[in-house]
Amino acid sequence: MSNTIHDRPTVTQAQSWTSLPAEFRRPCVSEHSLNQKRGRPLDSFLEGPIYVADLDLLFVTDIPYGRIFSIDSKAQWTLLLEYDGEPNGLAWNHATKTIVIADYKQGILDLNVASRELQNLAARYHGERLKGPNDLVISTNGVIYFTDQGMTGLQDPTGRVFRLYPDRRLELLVSNGPSPNGLVLNRDETALFVAMTRDNAVWYVPFLPDGSVQRIGRFASYYGIGGPDGMAQDTEGNILVAHSTLGTIFVHRSNGELLMKITSPLGINTTNLTWGGASLDVLYIVESESGTILKIDWHCPGWLVKS
């Protein structure tokens, strides 16, 4: 990573690792594809990757069919759970040793991997149903930050970002987001980066010492039909942003400078990413519509919340 501030960003390509097996593909129309894909049939739409070191497993969601899969180090797929929902983002709760799910249909759910039991953590705010949660991240003290995207966009910039405390108290942080999507905390947890898909930008949301939001700004801006989706961070503080319709992961230094582009060899729908491997130095990228997991070796470990 020797680029100077005047150098052009490095461009590299990820490689295909594994794809959803044929026996799990369902080439039909679902409630999700009717509402969000204009009725276009989808055999799957993968999202929300997380690697759980305790289990040495990568987990992904399949939004249209309410499924969560695990993938082992030999690229063997197992259907962990199928339920009446539209699971998107996943996060490992280091305190409870459970997977937390941002589910568009059901709200924020908690999954016990061993028993495969689901528990609802949040479905309403001030009595009203959530718009449709998209992604989430969990702080070192067990606070869940999640985006409530629904069908918001530039025509309706009312997407929200919430903070959910372990006692189930729900706090609204952002209420004017045009399609809030992926999010990541900075390393000292004093600010939140939020992908605003329909604004084609990543917003920077700093916190005051009491936890309230200070002055929100744009960290990075993009182009294209879609926009930024999932995000990750490495131990150097670089912010990695998956763009949903450019087939590209944009890598930014902590000051926003564009450092690198990682491209997909398959398609344009690079929607999310996570760290894995024994040293957390493998970047896994979801290429959603092809149902493929890409990977690339990284020069430093990724940054994940530690208990």
TrEMBL record:
Keyword annotations: Metal-binding, Zinc
Organism: Byssochlamys spectabilis (strain No. 5 / NBRC 109023) (Paecilomyces variotii)
Keyword hit for Zinc: yes
GO molecular function, one term: metal ion binding
Active site, UniProt feature: D229 (proton donor/acceptor)
UniProt cross-references to InterPro entries, sorted A to Z: 6-blade_b-propeller_TolB-like, SGL, SMP-30, SMP-30/CGR1_Lactonase
Cofactor remark: Binds 1 divalent metal cation per subunit.
Taxonomy, superkingdom: Eukaryota
Protein name: SMP-30/Gluconolactonase/LRE-like region domain-containing protein
Pfam families: SGL
Domain (SMP-30/Gluconolactonase/LRE-like region): residue spans on this chain: 47-286
Cofactor: Zn(2+)
Residues reported in the UniProt entry to bind a divalent metal cation: E47, N181, D229
